[in-house]
## 1
Amino acid sequence: MRIFVLTGAGISAESGLGTFRDTGGIWERFDPMKLATPEAFAADPDTVHAFYNARRDNLRASAPNPAHAALARLEAGLARGGGELFLCTQNIDDLHERGGSSRVHHMHGELFKARCTACGAVHHWRDDLGREDSCPDCGARGTLRPHIVWFGEIPFGLDAIGEALARADLFVAIGTSGSVYPAAGLVQEARYMGLRTCELNLEPSDNAHAFDERAYGPASDVVPEFVERVLREIG
Ligand code: BJW
């Protein structure tokens, strides 16, 4: 069996990382147009760096929850049976990796990476980032930006996503509101390709009608239940 899983901020909510659009979410407290666009970064890099430095602090202090661990068990279980898990996350955190997943496709980038706008090199970067920092590869100063996909930028690895969807049997969306494209359109692509579709979320998403199966509750409950059921089915 081949499963394509798309995760969103809801899977990391119980790890203490905020979601974006829930009540009290990140975009209720901060204006995304002033923080998560290339234009915002060009106009005021210090404010954008400060926002992501605070998010890095928060991520360093957080830990994976049972939903992340369950997806790692699913990856191992499917691989044992000759199947595959393609884990595609919109999240910029590293909680899937810390939860034990070995292959994670970060379509919106990674908070613990920085990219040089001069030479294009991507570097692991766990600490604060600012205009005083230099690129370890080319030495240019003030050219590093968060390795994150902002509004108006093209998500990473869309070809790999399309290929993985084309060879999957089941599409599962976990903890995502289904409001940011192109990720939000993947469930429809999956349907056109004939995949079964399943939503696991705290509550019905904007796309809930597009799913064949749905289970609602906190990710730390519904994801392990789903994974144990799949692992029993594949024996
Ligand atoms: C729980 C839970 C618990 C809570 N347990 N669940 C039509 C087509 C194509 C593009 C567009 C289009 N219309 C508009 C666009 C442009 C735009 C867009 O979609 N805008 C919308 C807002 C309308 N898209 C873009 O700009 C994208 N690029 C693009 O389109 O390029 C053009 C192109 C594409 C393809 C081919 C050719 C050209 C880029 C989007 C980049 C998104 N970036 C962000 C910020 C990242 C950096 C940062 O973190 O600061 O990514 S925005 C933010 O939203 C973040 C997330 O990854 C993304 C999705 O949010 P997510 O994960 O769904 O979170 P929430 O908060 O929305 O939902 C949480 C869910 O969890 C809820 O359902 C809760 O119920 C649930 N939940 N607690 C389980 N305990």
Note: The radius of gyration is 18 Å.
## 2
Amino acid sequence: MNERQKEPVNFIQKIINDDNESGKWGKRVHTRFPPEPNGYLHIGHAKSICLNFGLAKNNGGLCNLRFDDTNPLKEDDEYVQTIKEDVRWLGFDWEDRLYFASDYFQQLYDHAVSLIEKGLAYVCDLSSEEIRKTRGTLTVSGEESPYRERSIEKNLDLFSRMRVGEFPNGARTLRAKIDMSHSNLNMRDPVIYRILHASHHNTGNNWCIYPMYDWAHGLEDSIEKITHSICTLEFEDHRPLYDWYLDKLGVYHPQQIEFARLNLNYTVVSKRKLKRLVDEGIVDGWDDPRMPTISGMRRRGYTPRSIRNFAEDVGVTKRDTVVDIARLENLLREDLNKRAPRVMAVLDPLKVIITNYPKGQVEELDAINNPEDPQAGKRKITFSSEIYIERADFMEDPPKKFFRLGPGREVRLRYAYFITCNEVVKDNDGNVTAIFCSYDPETKGGSASDGRKVKGTLHWVSVEHAIDAEVRLYDRLFIKENPEEGGDFMENLNPHSLRSLPNAKLENSMKNAETDITYQFERQGYFKKENQKSMQAKIVYNRAVSLRDSWAKVVKQQK
Ligand code: ATP
Ligand code: MG
């Protein structure tokens, strides 16, 4: 429900409202978020987390965190740990309801035995290739397996021998006995168990048969007494099977509800594809700031609130769409604009020597932490006779519309003084290495006593007091709006997705900068400090997002 509790904000809430009215679940709402621990969570999962935990919260219900760990070949405890961290960071709490599908392996096995006993499942000796071939197509019925009519006794015997490890991988499967000519291919005697001699991150070598997703998932929901089992649209065609298993077993039966996956332009959201980027060294790990993973976004400087707002903003639909990544970036800006402390940092420094400012003199000037938030207060920044400005803020031969520094021109140094450029120093190759300026002592704080105006305001950092850092600027990881264009997303990588500025200078208040705060570097965007691997390691800041609003607008607001 929205804040006013009038209109249901999405079709799933509407279903919940109807269920509450009819008394279907006794007004209970119990959802779950069921990741497979085979990779890091991405923005699509964030959407699902916000939806499942959000519906539970808004309806006085509960949401479980359940690891769907039924495939030992791809799963790993590393993923379990990071997934837990990511869900918590997003702001959700599963309390004491952390579950693993693997904890239910015995129950799932017992249910399979009971399905065999009902004459509704059989052990099949066809290979996976043969099963695939005899499945038929949308227009052609499948062929019945020659093992389909095995007796219940024979099936029970073979299945128990599968379980104790008598047969090699792939030798046999347990299949549901449904209908080989069913119009829905998922109903053509689907596999329930396969033989896989592999060690599992949770159950070790206890099992050598593993349940298939469709079998496991519905039963997990059933065991946990889930009411609304929310999943993405690709499972719509699996719902008849979900229902069939639970109905035939006669067990508690949740309602499966499908919604459209979240897709973002310029982005891939599939663990399999993201894993390729990691494995092939395209990015620096799952948490590379360019990755759409929750951990990558955290490292880059996204706030949990901005991601939650995004999940809400895109809504819940039944139709697959591609959302513009700019929407996500705008919500991040909106959040950070209100909350991020503002500081000055020069990313690509050019030295300015103020010739009429007493050498060795130091002044502490007042700077406002966030004009959007009066509570944020002020801080002191240090001014001296040598400062850095942004190289791009100086032009030797500026056009008329360039309101920043050039020979003979006057600008304001933010929170400090007006300065005028008098002389340019160059090296033998003609590169500008420093500029000499004079300041007007009557302009302290940034306004002239004689009322004279300047158009440009520059950020700056005192040379002597600057903190050295490397700053990393990111661009989209793909050059195509649809990274799959042409068939292979690896062909559409943006070669300029990372730009490093190794000589950035930060104002001295940043010596106590925290790694869990995203700062605004005035005029440059929002930045977050990396966790330093050691005390000696270089200080690195990642840019989360650039500023949308221009400097001019910011300055105007402050006046
Ligand atoms: P991937 O395709 O990235 O591997 P998955 O669906 O296989 O994703 P799971 O770990 O099985 O990953 O997903 C956990 C939950 O997150 C599921 O309920 C799934 O439907 C949901 N989910 C995954 N991707 C998206 C997405 N892009 N948008 C919304 N929900 C998603
Ligand atoms: Mg999956």
Note: The two ends are 41 Å apart (CA to CA).
